Amino acid sequence: MAALDGPLTNGLSRTNGPINGNGDLHHSVPTESPIPFDPAVFRSYLLQLLPPIFGASPEDLDSIFDDDFEERVSRFAGEGGGVVYVVKKKDDHESEDAPPTYSYKLTTTLTYDPSHVTTIAIIKRGPMLDSTSPLATQLHIMNLFGSDDTPYESLHALISCAMKPYFEAFVGARGGGKDGDSKMGIPVTKKKFAELELSLLHLQQNVEIPETHLVVHPAIQRAVEQARQSGQRPSISDLPSNLLNDSSFLNTLQNQVNQWIKSIQTVTRLNRDVSSGTASQEINFWLSLERALEGIDAQLRSDEVNMVIDCLRHAKRFHATVSFLADTGLSDAMETVRKYNQLMKDFPLNELLSATDLEKIQEAVVLIFGHINRKLKLSPYPIRRALPLVEAISRDFNEQLLRVLTSHRLLYTPYDTFERLLSQTMAIFRTWDDHMKEFTNIAREVQRKRGEKFIPIKVVPAHAKLQDRIRYLRDWRKQHEQLAVMTAPTKGLGGVGSEIGGIDMEAEVKEAYEVMKRIDVLDVSMEGSEIWAAAENAYNERVARVENQIIARLRDRLGTARNANEMFRVFSKFNALFVRPKFKTQYRFSEAYHMSQMRDLPPISGAIIWARQIERQLQTYMKRVEDVLGKGWELYAEGQKLQSESSAFRKKLDVRPVYDAWLHDIARRDMGVGGRLFEIVRLRGGGYQLAVNFDPQIITLFKEVRNLLWQNFQVPHAITNMAKDAKRVYPHAVSLMETVRTYGQTLDLVENNKGIEWLVAEYRNEAQRMVTRGMNIRWDHFVSQYETGRYAMSEGARDNRHIQFVREFASVVSILQDKTNSVIDLYKDLLRSVEELSTCPYTPEAFRELLGKIQAAIDRLNLEGYANLDHWVAELDKRIEGILLQRVTHVIQLFCSEFERTDDHDRREAASLTSKRRDKRAKNDKSSDGTLALTPIVHEIRIQNQVIFLDPPIEHARAVWIHQLHEWLGTVCRLRRIQSSRYEIGLQMQGHTVTDLTYTSLLTKFEDDTLAKPFALIEQKVQSLKDYVAKWLQFQSLWDLEAEYVFNRLGDSLAHWQQLLTEIKKARSTFDTSETQKSFGVCVIDYEQVQARVNAKYDAWQRDILSRFGVKLGNAMKEMHAAILKARNDLEHHSIEGLVGAPRRF
């Protein structure tokens, strides 16, 4: 309808009126003119579309909108145009360093050029464009990438990732049946898509065969062309005679011939590794090589080449001509390639690669192996290349199967469809295996007839893992369906109740199945296998709850059954579940199995013994029936029924199928005592691990054989010999497994205790040397040399070196384990002591005790002979140094804080001078918890023989403080260093002296002024004391000065006298106070003794000076009074009249 409505909306092709049945017009309607398409709409659409695709700004796209833009758009929008292209082209630059620039153009014709970076194809969906509707609904946009060597990869991605999946999604959504699709040609279309995808893939994978063009001398070329024009056969007579004798011309020809030989040899010696790449690459390589060789052969038969050879023969340069004919190897290469291509031509590989369903894949497998098996007898294609070719075909076969099966989403399909697909897939695998056997036989026969070097005919199929997964998946889905049927609401257990034990069985089973649906069940990679295992475990956990509840219900029903008929009715209701492992009364899940394990009975032998015990018990019961009913009881109706049931049950107890299955399994497995002693195993979490290359199944094998022989089974001779070999090496294998396990655990201990690596390095290296030695030993040596050691006559006969290696390796690993465990315990105690160094009380005794423990541990390590002890002790000493340096730093900070702390009331109480005795020597005051404190030093200002002095002097305080600091630092610095070569018994190594036996060097390792700070504080405190004491010592002048000397110095200047009195009053504040001491924190100045005497002396001086000042002041007052009185008298005698009459001048 859109196609029909389009012309009407655009006003095209409309009649003047409706037409009646006779073709007459009833009335006329005026025609509407077509609505032209507006190019501006297309322009705005391009400006929104192209910038993000091209990575360009709208300004860069101006070159698209040239003068012809509107005309091109109009043609494109009309009925004529169907597509238009927008090309982004890279511009050429003379300089390679210049940044790239691009140009853009709009065109209706598509061309290919390497400079085209991107091409956008804009395709109309309808016949015309309507500017009134959104263009996004009227246009297709396709990005055609460029700037590649070839467009094959882009086209392949476009077909395989977009067009083909879109078509298949449409066909799948339409839901047509297979017959309906065939009628519409959908399978043919699918095949064409697959073939196109395959062709593009082949174009990518083709090995480029270099094209060889033989360059001919221009003179030869001209002569040949002239001869052809004249209709004559070219010959050397057409060349000038002087040219034939020209040595430079002949040398040029000879050089050209040599170049031809090298070029041809490049092609004839070309080869490829068939094990790399795909099968199509191998096939295309030989087909392309044949075409290239035929092209070279055609050039060699040309007139130009023949004339060159004739010229060289005429000049008697036979060396060049003979070399040209013999050294190229063209004829041999062509012969070989032609024979090889008997196999490669018409190879039906494309039938496999383009197959769209399982039937086509199976047909392709039959065609491929039919072609190989038929042509391999005719073509001399080497068997050593045919085997990797079949492996490559197996990879293509695996990928094609995955592609087809993945498209069906197996777990989402109904069970019938699932079973049909997987049955068909298993049939395909059987077809492959059958043809593979035929191929193997033919390859062996051909190899024998050709006399080729013998190689084992073994093909490792790439689809083996997929085959195992599909087989397992099929069984798993079958069991799930049986469980789902039984838990459905209308079937099976519906009568019992959908909920048993508080869980909804149907919902639980569905949720368990949903876990599996979320994963890719066909992913057989390592990661995919891990995901499958995790999902299956989650499924089993959910299903196990349902099974346990059903089993409990079944047991309850059986327990309440009153007779056998009721039991059989219960079994008939649950019979569909008896195929599941949990519902089978199997040997593996019985108590007898666990008892057999305790008695060291392997599984198969235990199952056979268990079945025979049940059979004997059945015979006993049947004998009792005969004893009760008499002979011929089986002739009665009920007896016949019992007899048939017992016979059927006896058939179930037949152990022959179990034994045959075991034989088949052993024959299928590649078991044997061989290979290297050790193997390196890759761990899942990354890394590698040493393991013993010994299959535990071999141990089970010889136990099975031993018990089966006791049960009178005829075990094949090959399996018996294999079991004997396993029995011979069993003790050594178990010893090696235990030794390797111990070795791995010990290395884990060393890894978890990083500090002991150096100590046990020698023992570890010895173990590694043993492993290196054992890597070259094979299990075959134990088997072949066992008899010699077994039948040695003398008790002191030396064991062979391989058995001796096992013992030595066990001994070395045992020593490594013992040494590691011993040093770990010692190392933990040692680390505990090292850590306690940072928290122990700050006393020499505490430090010496801990360092003594550390040194004792080191001495023990030394006496036990651990390696690298010097280096290890040096590292430990650095760690101890770091801890002690922190303690010393903290002590210095504590000293500074104590030294800077001002005096408080408690300190004055502690240092109260009740006794008034000064300490001659200050000592460190250490509290019971190990903290440190400084005791204040008391200095007394005394006067004796009229001399004031300080007792003890200030220098004593400095000496005491520095001594206290040295004592605090010496607590750590005087400690003896740990040593690696010291013994508790005092043995000293001669000629070995240790330069630094203590930790005094710690004082040189402060990075800042930590050590200088306490000395600076001491000097500051000493200076403060000096300044204060100097004030008291000034009062010595009270006794030293003479009164007359002071009076004479002052003279009669009352200002000096007044200044002195003021200073005396001010200085009195120093001693005229109720305090008797001055505290400086860590130092106290006591001035009680001198205070009273200085005060009395000061009072005497003050009284003398004050009285003398009074006398001076009285005299001065008298003199001033006399002067004032005299001046008054003089003024009174002068007359004011004379002064009044005098003229005034201003």
From TrEMBL:
Coiled coil: none
Protein's recorded name: Dynein heavy chain tail domain-containing protein
One of the record's GO molecular function terms: dynein intermediate chain binding
Region Disordered, annotated ranges: 1-31, 907-928
GO biological process, one term: microtubule-based movement
Domain spans labelled Dynein heavy chain tail: 250-586, 591-786
Family label: Belongs to the dynein heavy chain family.
GO cellular component terms listed in the entry, alphabetical order: axonemal dynein complex
Short name of any one Pfam family annotated for the protein: DHC_N1
Biased composition (Polar residues): 10-19
Superkingdom to which the source organism belongs: Eukaryota
